[in-house]
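User: Hey, my collaborator sent me this sequence without any context and asked if I could get a structure. I don't really work with proteins. Can you help?
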Amino acid sequence: MQSVDLLTIGAGGGAYPAAFRLAKAGRSVVMVDPKGVMSGNCLYEGCIPSKAMRETAVMLQSQRRFATRGLSGSMRIDYAQMIAHKDAIQARRYQQHAAELAAVPNIRLLQGVARFLSPHEVAVTTATGEQCFHCAQIILASGSEVFAPPIPGAHLCLSSHDLYKPDPTLKKLPGHLIVIGGGYIGLETATFLAAFGAQVTLLQRGEQVLDGMDPALVAQLTPLLDPRVRILTGVDVTAVEASRRGRRVRYRRKGKNEQLEGDIVLMAVGRRPVIPAGTVEIGIAVGKKGVEVGAGLQTAHPHIYACGDVNGRVPLFHAAVRQSLVAAHNILGGNQPLDYADFSHVPTTIFTLPAAAYVGITPDQAAARGMALVTGRYDFAEDARAQILERTEGGIRLFFAPDGLRLLGGWVLGIDAGHLIGQIGMAAASGLTAYDLARFADQHPTSAEGIGKAARSLF
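Assistant: No problem. I've predicted the 3D structure and written it out in structure-token form, which is a compact way to encode the shape of the chain:
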């Protein structure tokens, strides 16, 4: 039994920020991860590889605007070359993380699968045998995994893991992609591949894609998507089969049995938290979304913390990083809750083409709570940068409390959405008002000046 000050189950965004913070404070740290590399699913099969593909699609769209009539019809993406570019980015970042890890003493990364033996004891199964640790503190940051529903033939589908992992399964652009699931992973992937030239049919079980997102924002986004993305809602998929073309999907919609054939099928119905063996047995509560924690990230055992996707509160990489640091601060404080995670002001971006982003309280949430909002507006149709890029759809909406005009939330639809929403989130988390935003002279010509203009629309 080896003794260690901190053991992290996982080595991604919910784990390594705390590991580095505690190691620099002189604590001994062991990170355990089945992949044996630092950084979690974001780099392996999520945000980094998918956004490498998205930016290629953005550049392709931009080039097509200025192509001659003859060239426009023949401009195509070299999909294999783009995949090599994606893989190179992932390899570069893994090398970067390895160098960061090597530069900090007191941290050891162990490849293996962890399980709880007791609240202070963890066993790790490795390729060479089992190692056991007595841990003063534990951070549970095991992340999430692709969820495959019990649909006959689901094994014939690809997942986001197959599309985005290093050396992915899919290396050729399909002629027709069928996507099962209208969440952010399915819809983003649909728009990327459509931009590359694929025909895409997306099948969504509910009546709205991006379930859980403000319906008004979704209603504004969907008409702006590439028309090569055909969206069918209210679909109950009953089976996936092999066919001469590739794959056949059988489904029921509006009381009728129908079928659809394509080259490949992407199963994108969501992810679920990875719960290590022994978690429930040692008294840690696991709810529908994941391990149950409060704002201090502590479980039922004050020395065990759960950060990132495993707790299901805000399953995003940047949220996991902040939660990891909250856990580190509370560990250094003797397991006293000295720092708290703010789950209400984490910006979320749907990186479709175009993108949509939101933070804080939106109109749908306000209506559910019986809250009144005052809305500041700015349309990209009047924005200089949007006009330069010829991307004038969408705009900025800021939502304020009627008394005092304190910023409660906002959304951005269109250009630079992922960049702007962080500034809006910071303002909301800091309690800024429309007056504060209105008097800040933001840079021209950038889309960020639209934030001040949206605030000034109220005056």
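In plain terms: The CA atoms of residues 371 and 415 lie 29 Å apart. You can pass these tokens on to your collaborator as they are.
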